[in-house]
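New here. Your pick:
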Amino acid sequence: MSTNKINQANINANQQLNNFKKVDSDKSTKTGNDSSVKSGIDQARIASEKLDISSKAHNLQKLKEIMESGRAALAEEPPIREDKVAEVRQKLADGFYQSADVKAEVAAELSSLMSRMDKLLK
């Protein structure tokens, strides 16, 4: 979302707000209501509405930044090697990863990794 759209939304909101104020003041003069009490309520409502618009715009900007960084990270990833994926799927189907040799190798790697982590944490 460009900042021009956000600025335009603020301008439109301000125009609508001025219209509401005009209609509100016309009503209060016709009905004889206490405009100072009504004005305080209107100001609180206006402040909360303005804050809501700002937070939505802020959240949309954050979302846009997150999506752009995600796209950039994805673009840096190497392409998927379909031949390797097919090979691993076949090994899974054949039960290769359930063999005692593979389990022992994975256990040794995990043990080594845990030892290195313990040394780092000390």
Q: What stands out?
A: The mean pLDDT is 78. Residues 35-76 form the longest helix (42 residues). Residues 81-122 form one domain. The radius of gyration is 31 Å.
